[in-house]
UniProtKB/TrEMBL annotation, chains A, B:
GO biological process, one term: methionine biosynthetic process
Protein name: Homoserine dehydrogenase
Cofactor(s), names only, from the UniProt record: a metal cation
Record-listed NADP(+) binding positions: 12-19
Length: 432, 432
């Protein structure tokens, strides 16, 4: 399209993802021009140490982020990560009417409201497909394809590191510490794995998914978060014995109580049946299950991280934003009109799997069962197996409030006939 | 949003899908208004026999399609199906600047070029998510999320009827005719099942997928099409013996030969490994596997048909189109700039599984193998099993051109030592 004014892009950050963005922008320049209706031109790349980036054109590198953002660029692409200074840069860009494409889940999970308001005031676009589940087109379907439906549940594996570790524990029977070490050695876990193994990364993604699915502002602080450090080889073995496997799940649910809707949003390990579509998602892959009133069940599966997959998502957004510039259009804005409240975890409805070592004498089951009854928790299945001198007792509950289930477990742990609470884990993905 | 002028919608057709569209528009009116930024108002429903539609408001029904399309509506939603008169109606709507949402795969697979041109000339939108894979958000990801990537392959199960029949044959061992009868009885196959079982429906969808994935105009006539009527219990048994299952696949491939790209697009039954993600897609579900250079492998899974799922996809498009009206924006236009040629089926690269009944005497394998060598087809695996008086010989080839494989099979069928060609089927979904 000769004569069409190019869409000028500022890239903030040039790590694994940024380098891939530069490569795709260069390799696919002709295709992108045809798809956008105008050339897409990289105007500058902001980095901290220009001499460390020999793989990108030196003349584009700058350390002056503010000058780059304030220059005549049309779009700012941010792949730096972290809340500050990314927040300040992107607010500046949006206020100046520049559209923003970002892969920054932490920032979106904290400050999406502020960013959307700035975008809206200036008529700019804010896209962030790469922030959740890497290359898997997931946010656009939630924001747009399902915009005419009522989403009831989003449940997914959105963190590759923890999925790699849990898949490994499941296949080798090894413990958590040992498997984490292996994951670190292979480069699947970072030197400081906290953000992944403690569920912070997944919680940010859960907040973003819940916001979009339920048209409400949900931040990372609203998300109940439990990591995988407490998952033991015994938990995995217990799951196996029941035809289940353990996954770290991000769960966003619409809960309707007496006609009033609220949201439960949480990240925790859970047993799911091996027949569930998410059970087969192994290693560094991500997958997200979505349920909507009219559409029914859907699953989205693909690579959740990595330079090239994440860059693919960034480029898809960049094409959308650039097309909007060309036709003077606008992408979808924030949709938070429903403003549903987030319920505390204690009020969430869950099911527990509890595995106990108990004394092998008469009356044990009745004592344990009495505690469940007392807390109004109904039992779905029991398996008791005698051993030489003690017995193992496995109980799976029906759905109850998480608070009732926790109190039940606490009280059972204190019963004299209970030698050890071997494993306590939530159960998901089953018909109630 | 009080005071905002409503977006007026004309609905053409009120069968299973149309009725659900009306229901969702009514039930979710408040949500839709909030999501769109203006009320979405049903202005009229065109049907042939108004007295047969007691489930929708009588005052909206009309038999005069032209008057409805020519009235002051903003969007025309078409769920009638078939090429004419839908084509004439939608061209008229688009030419008058009205945006169109359609679920009509046959029409899109034949006339998308003409429709897009009319939309473009008038600045109107053309959306058709519901035309392929029902409720699964698939076209929007292809058109938008992956717009910055290079898609290399789309392979999917896009017809529920044939998948129901093949799943049934696989689980019961019954033959095709018997299983089709069962599917008809249960309502999974229509009285005249031709469009499904002969692959016409899947071929229309393949054409649409190939057009979007490869930025080229591909019509149903370009698609090589084989249905499932020739799939025998012997084929299914042969597949099972090799840890495979048989699926009707729609396959769209980018083929690069000496730096020049072309497209292979085809619908045919094929064996896939039971470990492949598509192998677990049973019954009336659809799933589509997409491979792109940067994003890697992705899968989209969900309900492929039915009133509510299809209506969900229609509503998602309607919200997008209505939002575009509100912000004076535009959705993505036709992207056919690449104009890649479609290669004839004979030039497609495929692998065959061939099962033969042969005489049990020395030299049989060498005679058969010689025919493969003669056609330059290399053999990946052979399994020979002697029986009382004859033997079974199973051969799986490496990839070769379909023409070479066909000639090989023809010639082998004529060898005196070959008593019967028991099963010939393509093999997909394996590493080459």
């Amino acid at each position: 399209m000769p004569g069409r004014k190019p869409i000028k892009v500022a890239l903030l950050g040039c790590g694994t993802v940024g380098t891939e963005v530069v490569r795709l922008l260069t390799d696919q320049a002709a295709d992108l021009t045809a798809r956008v209706g105008a050339p897409v031109e990289l105007a500058g790349i902001a980095v901290r140490k220009p001499n460390k980036h020999r793989e990108v054109p030196a003349e584009l590198l700058t350390t002056d982020v503010d000058a780059l953002v304030e220059s005549d660029v049309d779009v700012v692409v941010e792949v730096v990560g972290g809340i500050e200074p990314a927040r300040t840069w992107l607010l500046k860009a949006l206020k100046a009417g520049k559209s923003v494409v970002t892969a920054n889940k932490a920032l979106l999970a904290e400050h999406s409201g502020e960013l959307f308001e700035a975008a809206d005031a200036a008529g700019a676009d804010l896209y962030f497909e790469a922030a959740v589940a890497g290359a898997i087109p997931l946010l656009r379907p939630l924001r747009e394809s399902l915009a005419g439906d009522r989403i009831t549940r989003v449940m997914g594996i959105v963190n590759g590191t923890t999925n790699f570790i849990l898949s490994g524990m499941d296949s080798t029977g090894a413990g958590y510490a040992e498997t984490l070490e292996e994951a670190t050695r292979l480069g699947y876990a970072e030197a400081d794995p906290t953000a992944d193994v403690d569920g912070f990364d997944a919680a940010s993604k859960a907040a973003i998914l819940a916001s979009l699915a339920f048209h409400s502002r949900v931040t990372a602080a609203d998300v109940h978060r439990e990591g995988i450090a407490g998952v033991s080889a015994a938990d995995i073995a217990a799951a196996k014995g029941l035809g289940r496997t353990v996954k770290l799940l991000a769960i966003c649910e619409r809960v309707t109580d007496n006609g009033t809707d609220s949201i439960s949003v949480r990240v925790h390990p859970a047993m799911i049946p091996r027949s569930h579509p998410l059970a087969g998602v192994n290693g560094a892959f991500n997958a997200v299950f979505v349920e909507a009133d009219a559409a029914g069940e859907m699953m989205f599966y693909g690579k959740g991280a990595g330079g090239a997959p994440t860059a693919s998502a960034v480029l898809g957004d960049l094409v959308a934003v650039a097309r909007n510039k060309v036709v003077s259009g606008r992408g979808p804005r924030e949709s938070a009109y429903a403003a549903l409240p987030v319920r505390p975890m204690g009020h969430a409805s869950t099911k527990y799997h509890i595995s106990l070592d108990v004394a092998d004498k008469p009356g044990v089951l009745s004592q344990v069962a009495a505690v469940f009854a007392e807390h109004d928790v109904s039992i779905a299945a029991v398996r008791q197996e005698g051993r030489v001198d003690d017995a193992s007792l496995v109980i799976v509950t029906h759905a109850a409030t998480d608070a009732a289930l926790r109190s039940t477990v606490d009280k059972i742990g204190g019963l004299p006939v209970v030698r050890e609470v071997v494993s306590v884990m939530r159960v998901e993905g089953e018909e109630s």
